[in-house]
Amino acid sequence: MSDPVRALVVYESLFGNTERIAGAICAGLRSSLQVELVRVDRAPVVLPAELELLVVGGPTHAFGMSRHAGRVLSASAQGPVVMPLHTGIRDWLDQLRHRQGLAATFDTRLAKSRWMPGSAAKSAARVLDRRGYKFLADPAGFLVEDALGPLVPGELIRAREWGEQLALSLHSQTRPNTADTSPGDTDHRHTA
User: What are 83-98's pLDDT values in tens digits?
Assistant: First the structure.
């Protein structure tokens, strides 16, 4: 019998950029966790009871999570897509059965619009927050040069490091604190 999944990474990816970021985040989480990576159209709407961390990510589209019409009309017209367009993270979160736990969210966005308002990660975090989830990190954004890619150099490394930090934060949340912290100690958690 295999170990129970302790972390689940659910992602939406239109052109493969978010999929690559999700894979790098998983690699970082796997440094100390059992992790499953699942495309959003294959993700369960009832999460396993033993799940300790839910990580959700998708592309920022029209200042938030993508909508079905936007995926069909806009994304499919730009180039070949890597997954079916019928389900995005917005749709999946709407179907997700109520459950509380620990979560983190991420997105991909155009480098040239990095300072514009709106974020799929922040939108997903608001939905999960309303469902009672607590967050291990601020929503993270990873940059692509153009809608079709490629990723900005260094983003895969940053995504892996973010995953490693999530794993460390999860361990500190779920493990009893048996050591006293001295006044000089510093919390080295990284939030993106």
Answer: 888 899 999 999 998 7
